[in-house]
Design a protein that fits this description.
Blueprint: E1 4-7, H1 12-15, E2 23-32, H2 35-42, E3 56-58, E4 63-66, E5 72-76, H3 86-96, E6 100-103, H4 109-118, E7 121-124, H5 130-135, E8 137-144, E9 154-169, H6 176-198
Parallel strand pairs: 1-2, 2-3, 3-6, 6-7
Antiparallel strand pairs: 2-9, 4-5, 7-9, 8-9
Length: about 200
């Protein structure tokens, strides 16, 4: 099976045949963007210093090494919990035109609606692989809002085959984490009964 690679700027048509559960990789640019940047845009009405139309963001607080004036090296960039951005993400997608959101864990109905209505996807980078993610960064080309400190700065990175990225929410209204919750709950009672029968001697 051919490796699915998205390249920025991403078009809605590029996402039409991508579904929840698919694995993709990213070429081009991705910008780290988490709590405070979302609040500045949505709550404070501040314009982002980075153009994200057709772009990608990463919910992450990376570790950066300074290598001279305006020169940086990505040391580690593990994804942070995406659900923290849930209350902002639908409006964020609408206002910015971002097409790929990468983070850790699932997101809720607001993000699902945003991805469906404005044709974007949310993807999960496997947790615990921060150094692997950093190795996909060819260069940090821009740093904005450095006043927020290293974790919250908008680091715009040129990446090559950044991934694997597991699609958790697609443009068709599917949410992999919510679908899996239903499946797991269906199996839960049977699993509990089987385990209880084996450990009934424990008081």
């Amino acid at each position: 099976m051919a490796k699915k690679i998205l390249t920025t700027p991403i078009q809605a048509a590029d996402l039409a045949d991508i579904h929840a559960g698919d694995i993709v990789y990213l070429n081009g640019y991705i910008t780290t963007c988490r709590d405070v940047a979302h609040r500045r845009l949505i709550e404070e009405g501040r314009e982002l210093p980075v153009a994200l139309d057709g772009g990608a963001i990463l919910h992450a607080g990376p570790i950066i090494r300074t290598c001279g004036e305006d020169k940086y090296e990505m040391v580690s960039v593990g994804p942070t919990t995406s659900m923290r951005m849930e209350k902002f993400e639908k409006e964020f997608i609408k206002q910015t035109g971002v097409k790929l959101i990468v983070g850790k864990g699932g997101m809720g109905n607001g993000t699902m609606e945003g991805c469906r209505d404005y044709k974007a996807v949310h993807a999960v980078f496997p947790a615990g692989c921060a150094v692997v993610a950093a190795a996909c960064v060819e260069e940090i080309e821009e740093a904005n809002w450095k006043d927020l400190g290293m974790p919250e700065t908008l680091w715009t990175c040129r990446v090559k085959e950044f991934g694997p990225l597991i699609i958790s929410i697609d443009t068709h209204g599917r949410n992999l984490f919510e679908e899996n919750k239903i499946k797991f709950n269906e199996k839960k009672e049977k699993a509990i009964a089987e385990i209880s029968a084996q450990v009934g001697f424990i008081k």
